[in-house]
Design goal:
single chain; alpha/beta; Rossmann fold; GMP Synthetase, Chain A, domain 3; 16 helices; about 30% helix
Length: about 525
């Protein structure tokens, strides 16, 4: 199935059901379907060809997603472009994956002028909300283009999207999604997270990342999507209560901020069925708190753009069992067990499968895995292991019951005095401190040990702690070798456009001027 077929299935269920709600603005499935045909017809009339790349540059917005559907309807390739990215990063993305058409919101007019200069492959720009300085208004662009767009065949190997690889360690690579990759992801997610009542999804995180992927999956079952401009409080909590939300995705850092709201327990979350968290490890203590506040609705996905979103799954019921059954508590540190149709093993550097319990690189294979990076065979070869395995770059192990535990990112491992130290283990301990909002553990230069462990901490508003207090906590829980040698408190940790803590930026402060970086 093509991505647009998933949308059309949702429209078939109930064409009059609200597809998107954005403040006072509401759009039914039928209205969105008609508009997607008009956008596709206008694109094709303007010379857009099947298989070309097109992007939408906007905050979460109804019109922005309408244009995404129009791109799919025209047989195009969607390139997600996060509005929170720095302009040079978005310039690189647009040029790197050969974007031909750019839809944009007028609030980004000045940035689009830069794109026009730096990205000569862009031949057509359309402004979403009014006439642009050098671009037609969307309403004018589609005027006169009534009726249905031509049907393009459903080829499993056709490219439907080019996703960024994350970009936390440099400019992102273009991850190729085919129709088969999307279909595998969608079928897996719907099988593991079926609705029990009419589905309502609150989209607060950027639509260009996991939250938007979830939205595209849920439209196949006729979900109503409540569009918020961002993760803001109390707006998000009010939206859950008002619209009786059943699905929500947030990265752990956003959940931490939500839990820290003084009135977080004031709202009614009883409608919730699936509160998904992913994109980074979550503090076990904050996970317990989440289950206490929001109910038995927490579920975890593990994946990446290269194998999107659902390599493993940790269900709501499994969370409850781990929380309340003696002997299962350790599972709260897991990211779940391999999802349907996703073979998973732990491999060593030579591509050999390791025994259960041994640490190595988490690898997956199957139809969920991308065919490669766009026009980058070298990078593609680096993540391909023997026998069709894809290297995730994550270090972990799998126990005898199939539970997968992520130890850390391969690139984040600290080598101190010959010992391999995994920051996420230390971060779990620091997160348990009542005053800690978020933290990052990194290796910093040390003449004696090569690297030493440093913790950089963001405290909750109005709360305090000390370096000695944090180090003592870690020594009690982990021993001296793994404990931070130094601790710094920052007002705010740097985060990527999707809310991940940018360890690269933190690390850079301490390694600048060093001849080596390990």
């Amino acid at each position: 199935m093509r991505v647009i077929d998933f949308f059309d299935r949702g429209a078939l269920i109930d064409q009059n059901r609200a597809f998107m709600i954005d403040g006072d603005r509401q759009q039914t499935y039928r209205e969105a379907q008609v508009l997607s045909h008009r956008i596709a017809r206008a694109l094709l009339a303007a010379g857009y060809r099947r298989g070309e790349s097109a992007s939408v540059y906007s905050h979460n917005d109804i019109s922005a997603f309408d244009c995404v559907l129009g791109i799919f309807r025209a047989g195009g390739v969607w390139v997600p472009l996060n509005a929170r990215n720095a302009v040079p990063e978005n310039c690189y993305i647009l040029d790197n994956v050969d974007v031909q058409v750019l839809f944009y919101h007028s609030s980004f007019e000045d940035n689009v002028a830069v794109f026009r200069e730096k990205c000569p492959k862009i031949r057509l720009c359309i402004c979403l909300d009014k006439k642009g300085k050098a671009a037609p208004w969307l309403e004018d662009f589609i005027a006169g283009h009534e009726g249905e767009a031509p049907f393009f065949p459903d080829m499993p190997t056709d490219v439907c999207a080019l996703f960024g690889s994350g970009g936390t360690t440099g400019f992102p690579k273009g991850v190729i999604w085919t129709n088969l990759v999307f279909e595998t992801m969608a079928m897996g997610m719907l099988a593991l997270m079926p609705p029990r009542k009419p589905p309502v999804h609150v989209l607060a995180a950027p639509m260009t990342h996991a939250a938007g992927g979830l939205m595209m999956v849920l439209m196949a079952i006729g979900a109503t999507n409540v569009i918020l401009p961002g993760v803001k409080f109390p707006d998000l909590m009010q939206a859950i209560e008002k619209h009786k939300a059943t699905y929500l995705f947030l990265p752990p850092t956003a959940i931490y901020v939500m839990l820290a709201q003084p009135d977080v327990r004031k709202y009614d979350y009883s409608s919730m069925e699936h509160f998904l968290y992913a994109a980074a490890p979550m503090s076990v203590d904050k996970l317990r708190e989440s289950m206490d506040v929001f109910g038995p609705v927490m579920c975890q996905l593990y994946g990446q753009a290269e194998a999107p979103f659902i390599c493993t799954f940790f269900s709501q019921q499994e969370h409850v069992e781990a929380l309340h059954n003696q002997g299962y508590e350790h599972r709260l540190y897991s990211c779940g067990r391999p999802a349907l149709s996703v073979p998973l093993e732990i491999l060593d550097d030579d591509g050999n499968i390791l025994p259960r319990g041994e640490k190595g690189e988490i690898c997956v294979r199957g139809n969920l895995v991308m065919p490669g990076y766009y026009k980058n065979p070298k990078a593609t070869a680096e993540v391909h292991a023997p026998n069709g395995w894809h290297r995730t770059g994550d270090i972990g192990y799998q126990d005898d019951e199939g539970w997968v535990y992520i130890v850390d990112r391969k690139k984040d491992m600290i080598i101190s005095g010959g010992f391999n130290i995994y920051p996420s283990e230390i971060e779990q301990v620091i997160w348990s401190h009542a005053a800690v909002q978020d933290c990052a553990v990194i290796g910093v230069p040390d003449e004696k040990w090569g690297e030493s462990v440093k913790a950089v901490i963001e405290l909750k508003p109005g709360m305090a702690s000390t370096e000695d207090e944090i180090i003592a906590l870690c020594k009690t829980e982990l021993g001296s070798v793994k404990s931070p040698k130094t601790v710094e408190f920052w007002d705010q940790l740097p985060r990527s456009a999707v809310g991940k803590v940018r360890k690269k930026d933190i690390r850079e402060k301490f390694w600048v001027g060093q001849a080596r970086r390990v």
